[in-house]
């Protein structure tokens, strides 16, 4: 049995990563991927398989979002001339 606070912690983690995405933080996608691992664990332990399906979907969304962010970030850096 998973403690009740897990659902609140996972919700807070989800909200934090979404807010970080809004502010275009690079670590938002890392946090998003980490939270999917945590949600997957929660899904398996509580046998709520719908969460596992959503984890797969949100993992793909996080990877696509990270790739899009990186492409835009690299373009902005090249325009400014500070490409390493």
Explained architecture:
The chain is mainly α. It has a domain at 29-78. 83% of the residues lie in helices and 0% in strands. It is built from 3 helices and no strands. α1 packs antiparallel against α2 (27-46) and α2 packs antiparallel against α3. The longest helix is centred in the C-terminal third of the chain and has 32 residues, at 49-80. The chain starts with a helix and ends with a helix. 11% of the residues are buried. The model has no long low-confidence stretch (mean pLDDT 90).
Produce the secondary structure layout.
Elements: H1 5-22, H2 27-46, H3 49-80
Helix pairs in contact: 1-2, 2-3
Helical content stands at over 70%
Instruction: Give the low-confidence spans.
Output: none
Let me know the average pLDDT: 90
State the shape: elongated
Distance between the termini: 49 Å
Characterize the largest beta sheet: strand count, sense, and whether it forms a barrel: none
> Radius of gyration over alpha carbons?
16 Å
Q: Number of helix segments?
A: 3
What class, by secondary structure content?
Answer: mainly alpha
The gist of it:
With 84 residues, the chain is mainly α. The protein is elongated, with a radius of gyration of 16 Å.
Which descriptors would you attach to this protein?
elongated, about 0% strand, 3 helices
